[in-house]
Design brief:
Elements: E1 11-12, H1 18-29, H2 39-52, H3 61-78, E2 90-93, E3 107-110, H4 113-134, H5 141-160, H6 179-203, H7 208-229, H8 242-267, H9 271-292, H10 299-320, H11 365-402, H12 421-432, H13 435-478, H14 492-530, H15 532-539, H16 552-580, H17 587-597, H18 602-643, H19 654-725, H20 807-810
Antiparallel strand pairs: 1-2, 2-3
Length: 844
């Protein structure tokens, strides 16, 4: 048999996966409370890509194993990263473009893991064909089996690649990945696999009738391959000898089917038909040599057929005297489907043996979406329950302050004008917390935090704006030649999220004003409490009233009720922490549902999980609220009995009113301290989110810049090709020399643009301003989880993107979307303040 053909490999440009993958994964899977570090896996993946795409790959099984491993890793990672999050500009060159003296090759850049996977899959099929073709050195039994297996695998992969254009983000694929090319390659590899089965059958000395039927199928497969390879859209791509070889093999296997069928005739003593088939075999084999352009094409079978026909003619002349029928009257050899041994092998889910996913801990995208949605539901319930407790506590504090409790019932061993013990304790608490100075410092620090976030957001919007302006400028200049998707169709979600970030900042500024107003209202009381017992004593007026006090039993009852109030508040703080820190396993139920049903019913599973986890805590919340109701009723009754009711007017003296003002100042101080701590954390967390947002926009702009440069090269190449095709008119010959007729030259399908001089770039009107450097370091911490939000607080709640929200169910990106969109990850902002730290993330 003759040598086999193999497909050329695609060439990839170097891409650093380290920083982009780290940014993408940390933005999706990491939180500040539970950072996910996949640095080792990312480094290994980057190293694996370098090895798999090395220019020194040999035609061997180990080289195939490298490609298998990288393909499996990309396929696994593709299932765990939303397509619109990928901003890595994967650039691959056309496998069939040979370049030119001027440099340049047809290539395509798409920021998509699907595109990277498809290109790797093409290279796997190409290398399989190369290994299969190179392995036929001695045509040993093992080599033939391996080659047949590889060619069938290669055919199956090329067949699957017919849908590769869907991964190009709406762009036209390079010729090697067009449906016509991969379909032709699939047919060619299948025909060569059938050829190997013919060779194996001959070596195994199978029955001649079987071998003849195998040859008929081989001829049919080569005819199909030749028909597809001769299409106008693809025939110029193949190497010069490909079409002649395939055409020659089609004829050769037609001849071989006659050759082996002649053996069957000889065995049946049908000598006349045997001679006719051998004559036909020799005639077609000579045609095969002519078609292929190879003088010794299937020469061994020509020699065998010549010997056989000579012997058959001799036997017929001396013994059988049969009439040799015409070739046209010969019965065709049956095309038996069972003789079509070569079949495309479907692409398995995993190509490598014992594949180990480097990102095994990362869940599939659908599971991550379900977990994010469930986490949002859990946060909403958490906020609701905590808000119930805090509203109840605020109501209880206001009731006690209005009754001047517990100060009014405390013993005044130092006299009527002595500072009550509860007021002393409040003053100590304010002093230990830093007093008024600490609040003023925190309030004064807020503008700097706000300005930092505004600068990051301004820079992100500037990068986005300049990229769009550059695209619009080139579109206006090049018109229909500028074929890429316009920026305004790709950056819509970025703009929407930037506007929402801007809205969050504005709401936060309004919340700052609420904080300042509350501080101004209670500043005098907080200042006096910050001065300790001396400051409080100076603030309290002398007691000049004649208080009418009730029974000692009512006073003792009030004291016991105050102790119960303190216990209630302590228990409520513990309950609140339990609610905020509630965690349960989200990963396992959703993974089990996906494995069992093939889909996830997130609402049903989430409701069941949350209900089971929060049921005991909800019961405790209900008991706490009911206990407060009974305590308030008892306090009111005993207070009326102890102090007595006075219809109309304020029953509190000036001293009692001052003590109530101090009590309210203490409560305001504690609230302000918590709000300012959470406000500071809010701005710091927002900085991290904005840095991540800015970084994604930077990746988007870089990918668009790379695509722009590729398209500019194509436009320049087309312009150069058009110029080269306009040949100057021929110079008139001298009068004494007759002018020869000009021959029409056929322009090549692909030509390359002249390489620009070193240091020179595209024309000035192609230039665009590069994105500015980020004002803050790009090594930002990962995004934070969603904070709690309850009514009555000024800071706006925000949902981090994309850790605690399911952006994909509501805003799915188009299937052909080439560039990333920022997920819609915000809860509606409210004019309410932060009041506590973010919850712990779910256990993974």
């Amino acid at each position: 048999m003759t040598d086999l053909l193999s497909a050329p490999l695609k060439k990839a440009s170097d891409v650093d996966l380290l920083k982009p993958l780290k940014n993408i994964i940390s933005g999706i899977y990491s939180t500040a409370d539970k950072p996910e570090d996949y640095s080792g896996a990312i480094i290994e993946t980057n190293k694996l890509r370098g090895q798999a795409l090395s220019k020194t790959l040999d035609k061997s099984q180990p080289a195939l194993d490298l490609l298998y491993r990288y393909y499996d890793q990309i396929a696994a990672l593709e299932n765990k990263i939303p397509p619109h999050e990928v901003n890595i500009p994967f650039k691959w060159k056309d496998a069939f473009d040979k370049g030119s003296l001027f440099g340049g090759r047809v290539s395509l850049t798409v920021p998509s893991l699907s595109y990277e996977r498809v290109c790797i899959l093409y290279n796997i099929a190409a290398l399989q064909s190369q290994v299969g073709a190179a392995g036929r050195i001695s045509d040993s039994d093992e080599e033939l089996k391996t080659a047949a297996k590889l060619f069938q695998l290669s055919s199956g992969i090329f067949a699957q690649l017919k849908s590769a254009a869907s991964t190009m983000g709406g762009q036209e694929p390079t010729p090697d990945l067009s449906a016509d090319v991969v379909s032709a390659l699939s047919a060619l590899m299948l025909a060569q696999a059938q050829e190997i089965f013919v060779t194996k059958a001959v070596q195994d000395k199978m029955k001649d009738a079987i071998v003849a039927k195998l040859c008929v199928q081989a001829e049919d497969m080569y005819a199909d391959a030749l028909r597809q390879m001769q299409r106008d859209a693809v025939k110029h791509l193949w190497d010069r000898e490909w079409l002649p070889i395939v055409a020659g093999k089609q004829a050769a296997f037609s001849a071989l089917s006659q050759y082996f069928q002649s053996h069957v005739c000889g065995q049946k003593k049908q000598v006349g038909e045997q001679i006719a088939r051998l004559n036909h075999c020799l005639e077609v084999l000579k045609q095969a040599q002519t078609r292929s352009g190879v003088p010794n094409f299937f020469a061994d079978y020509i020699n065998k057929a010549n010997r056989m026909v000579a012997e058959a003619k001799k036997d017929n002349d001396f013994i059988y005297h049969e009439r040799v029928p015409e070739t046209s009257s010969l019965m065709p050899i049956d095309k038996v489907a069972s003789a079509r041994l070569a079949k495309p092998t479907p692409v398995p889910e995993r190509l490598s043996n014992n594949f180990k996913d480097l990102f095994e801990e990362m869940v599939p995208v659908v599971v991550h979406q379900a977990m994010a949605s469930c986490d949002v539901r859990k946060t909403e319930i958490t906020n609701s329950k905590v808000a119930q407790l805090r509203e109840a506590s605020q109501l209880l504090n206001s009731i006690l302050a209005s009754l001047n409790l517990p100060a009014a019932i405390e013993d005044s061993s130092g006299g009527a004008d002595a500072v009550p013990q509860s007021i002393k304790e409040k003053a100590v608490g304010v002093q230990e917390a830093g007093g008024l100075n600490s609040l003023m410092k925190s309030v004064n620090d807020l503008p700097e935090l706000v300005q930092r976030n505004k600068e990051i957001l301004d820079e992100a919007e500037r990068m986005l704006r300049e990229e769009e302006e550059s695209d619009n400028q080139l579109r206006a200049q090049l018109k229909e030649k500028w074929t890429r998707t316009s920026s305004d169709k790709l950056n819509g979600t970025f703009k929407t999220n930037a506007a929402r970030y801007r809205e969050i900042l504005n709401n936060a500024l309004a919340a700052d004003e609420v904080i300042r107003g509350k501080l101004a209202t209670h500043q005098q009381a907080i200042e006096k409490l910050s001065g300790g017992e001396a400051g409080v004593s100076d603030f309290l007026p002398r007691d000049t009233s004649n208080k009418v006090q009730g029974s000692e039993s009512a006073k003792e009852n009030l004291r016991q009720l105050m102790r119960q109030v303190e216990h209630l508040k302590s228990d409520r703080e513990s309950l609140e922490e339990s609610i905020k820190n509630m965690t349960f396993d989200l990963r396992t139920p959703f993974l089990s549902a996906l494995a069992h049903d093939g889909a996830i019913n997130e609402p049903a599973i989430s409701v069941e999980l949350i209900g089971k986890a929060f049921s005991p805590l909800e019961h405790q919340v209900k008991e706490s609220l009911e206990k407060q109701e009974s305590l308030v009723a008892a306090i009111q009754q005993n207070s009326d009995e102890y102090f007595g009711r006075k219809p109309g007017g304020d029953t509190l003296s000036r001293r009692d009113q001052a003590m109530r003002q101090l009590a309210e100042g203490y409560d305001a101080f504690m609230d302000l301290q918590n709000n300012l701590k959470e406000g500071t954390k809010f701005y710091n967390d927002l900085t991290q989110l904005l840095l991540a947002f800015q970084n994604k926009i930077g990746d988007f702009c870089f990918a668009r810049k790379t695509e722009k440069e590729e398209l500019l090269k194509d436009v320049t190449r087309e312009a150069s090709t058009a110029t080269s095709q306009q040949a100057p008119p021929p110079r008139p010959p001298p009068p004494s020399v007759p002018q020869a007729p000009a021959s029409a030259a056929t322009a090549p399908q692909y030509t390359s643009a002249p390489a620009p001089p070193p240091g020179s770039g595209p024309p000035s009107y192609f230039q665009t301003q590069q994105p500015g450097s980020m004002p803050y370091p790009s090594g930002y911490p990962p995004a934070m989880p969603m904070p709690f939000q309850a009514p009555g607080a000024p800071y706006p709640a925000y949902t981090p993107m994309p850790a605690a929200f399911n952006p994909y169910a509501t805003y799915p990106p188009p299937s052909n979307y080439p560039y990333p969109q920022q997920p819609m990850g915000y809860a509606p902002p409210q004019q309410q303040p932060y009041y506590q730290q973010p919850q712990q993330p779910p256990q993974q």
